[in-house]
């Protein structure tokens, strides 16, 4: 019982690790490349993203702790609900390298569409285990919906240059 705080903190901090690494690795491309892209009028300000992701990662991390705790740790019952969570988290962390690092909007779009499905699956699997944990994912799903629409619009409005083609 005395070590439960360490698990709580560990699960809550874990999503931030990949988010921070994604930002750190791609931080130079954001002001240079991203700012030049054509974006819709409803695109959030760059300043909103770190605040939003801090809140969202904290909520999903704590929710994963609740599910892990309710299932008695890494038991066979935890395999699917925490496996879905881990898979969606991996896709979440993969999006910035696809989008900002490789500047591959098509791969970023495929990634986020798969991420959407896994995040919904995660929430559905968690709902039977811990309703609070599932509800903590609702803001994340809302943000993912906006991010998916934004990725689609940026992909459509900024055609990728074909190698060897010059105007």
TrEMBL record:
Membrane topology designation: Multi-pass membrane protein
InterPro entries named among the record's database cross-references: TspO/MBR-related_sf (IPR038330), TspO_MBR (IPR004307)
TM regions (residue ranges): 6-26, 47-66, 78-95, 135-155
Record localization: Membrane
Keywords, ordered alphabetically: Membrane, Transmembrane, Transmembrane helix
Keyword Transmembrane: yes
Pfam families in alphabetical order: TspO_MBR
Highest taxon, organism lineage: Eukaryota
Gene Ontology CC: one annotated term: mitochondrial outer membrane
Similarity comment text for this entry: Belongs to the TspO/BZRP family.
Annotated protein name in UniProt: TSPO protein
Organism taxonomic ancestry: Eukaryota, Metazoa, Chordata, Craniata, Vertebrata
């Amino acid at each position: 019982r005395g070590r439960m705080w360490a698990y709580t903190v560990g699960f809550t901090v874990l999503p931030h690790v990949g988010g921070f690494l994604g930002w750190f690795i791609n931080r130079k491309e954001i002001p240079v490349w991203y700012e030049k892209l054509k974006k819709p009028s409803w695109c959030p300000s760059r300043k909103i993203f770190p605040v939003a992701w801090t809140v969202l990662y904290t909520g999903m991390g704590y929710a994963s702790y609740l599910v892990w705790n309710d299932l008695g740790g890494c038991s066979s019952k935890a395999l699917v609900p925490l496996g879905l969570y881990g898979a969606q988290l991996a896709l979440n962390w993969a999006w910035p390298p696809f989008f900002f690092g490789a500047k591959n909007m098509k791969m970023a779009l495929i990634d986020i569409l798969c991420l959407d499905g896994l995040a919904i699956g995660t929430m559905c699997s968690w709902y039977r285990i811990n309703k609070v944990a599932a509800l903590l994912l609702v803001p994340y799903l809302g943000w993912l919906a906006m991010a998916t629409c934004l990725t689609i619009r940026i992909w459509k409005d900024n055609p990728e240059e074909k190698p060897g083609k010059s105007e």
